[in-house]
Amino acid sequence: MKLVSFLHDGRPGYGTTDGVTIRSASAAMRARCPDLRAVLSQDALGALATDPDATSVPLTAVIMRPPIPNPSRILCVGLNYRKPYPVDGVAPPDPENIILFGKERQAVVGHGVALQIPFGVPADSFDYEGEIAIVIGRKGRNVPIEHAMHLVAGYSAFNDGSVRAWQKHSIHAGKNFERSGSWGPWIITADEIADPQALELSTRLNGDLVQNALAAEMIYTIAEQIAYASQITTLEPGDVIATGSPDGTGGSRTPRRFLRAGDRLEVSVSGVGTLMNDVGGLD
Predict the structure, then answer these.
(1) Bridge-partner residues for 105, per DSSP?
(2) Does the CA dihedral 58-59-64-70 come out positive or negative?
(3) Phi and psi at residue 202, in whole multiples of 5°?
(4) Helix intervals (H) in 113-205
(5) Are 267 and 275 in contact (CB under 8 A)?
(6) Terminal-to-terminal C-alpha distance of the chain
(7) pLDDT tops 70 at residue 90
(8) Are strands 273-280 and 115-116 parallel, antiparallel or unpaired?
(9) Staple 7 to which of 40, 63, 131, 200, CB 3.0 to 4.6 Å?
(10) Exposure string over 152-188, b if 16+ CB within 10 A, otherwise e
(11) How much is the mean pLDDT over the chain?
(12) What is the widest separation between alpha-carbon atoms in the chain?
């Protein structure tokens, strides 16, 4: 099942989709669960799937939002793939521990919505990072690795937009420019992914393949990431974990190739879908 959040005629909604048409949650369903985060919190995916009064809306008639527009947290994992040509030019050893940082919800937009190129000097190092995102469906704290996958509601594609020069100020600064990243186009529920470590990630810039890797190449598995994060904080339904980006980002290329206005970025995850965003100017 594919779960989507959107704006239709300026009004927020959510539902399921087959990639062409949305089954928009009925008024009764929305009264019970105002958004997809509430659907996950109330374990109401079954009710959403069988909503008798859902209405049909063409996917082309909506503005896509991040599938969970209001997560309580977005956690991103750093240095989780081995990179022969990393951003700083020297291949680091494997990290001894999982590296986590937070991303604000204002830093991400949905599928089809333009990324905002930063103003002034930060635009000179505006980079992309294609990633596989996992969405938490069950509350959990201090979760053992062997039970971690039971918390997963589903999977999505993620672009961890980064301003490389400002990462030297702080990770938070470089990773949280407004509308610099994105995720979507939807969440595909975990029951449709037989082996998440077999997922294939690919990123294309203006049609050219720039990143390609399997989840099996991660240094720390998805289960290890969930278990680690749950030691720090209680994971809540609707939380997002972006699982790290492989080699091929603009800052790791020779010559470097950062994003420019007019570029088109596509992040695809096998069995999930393709997240597409154009790079726009400042509003």
Answers:
(1) none
(2) positive
(3) -140, 145
(4) 164-167, 171-175
(5) yes
(6) 35
(7) no
(8) parallel
(9) 63
(10) bbbbbbbbbbbbbbbbeeebeebbbbebbbbbbbbbb
(11) 96
(12) 57
- Residue found under tokens 């099942």: 1
Q: Are residues 104 and 66 in contact, defined by beta-carbon separation less than 8 angstroms?
A: no
| Interval 122-131: pLDDT, tens | 999 999 999 9
Q: Please give the pLDDT value at position 93.
A: 80
- The two tokens of residue 163 are 């301003």
Pairwise CA distance, residues 153 & 181, whole Å: 22
Instruction: Single out the residue of 105, 196, 190 nearest to residue 151, CA to CA.
Output: 190
Task: Show Cβ contacts of residue 66 under 8 Å, excluding neighbours closer than 6 positions.
Answer: 5, 105, 108, 109, 110, 182, 183, 184
Residue closest to 17 by CA, chosen among 66, 57, 63: 57
- What is 74-280's CATH number? 3.90.850.10
Structure tokens at 25: 């949650």
| Sequence ranges of the domains in the chain | 2-64, 74-280
Question: What are the E-state strand segments in the chain?
Answer: 2-8, 11-17, 21-24, 55-58, 63-64, 74-78, 99-103, 108-109, 115-116, 126-127, 130-136, 152-159, 162-163, 181-189, 200-205, 208-214, 240-242, 264-269, 273-280
Length of the chain: 283
Mind listing the pLDDT tens digit for each residue in 244-279?
Answer: 999 999 999 989 999 999 999 999 999 999 999 999
3-class SS of residue 201: strand
* Chain Cα centroid distance, residue 78: 14
Residues near 17 by Cβ (< 8 Å), separated by ≥ 6? 2, 4, 23, 59, 186
Round to whole Å and give the CA distance between 239 and 41. Answer: 11
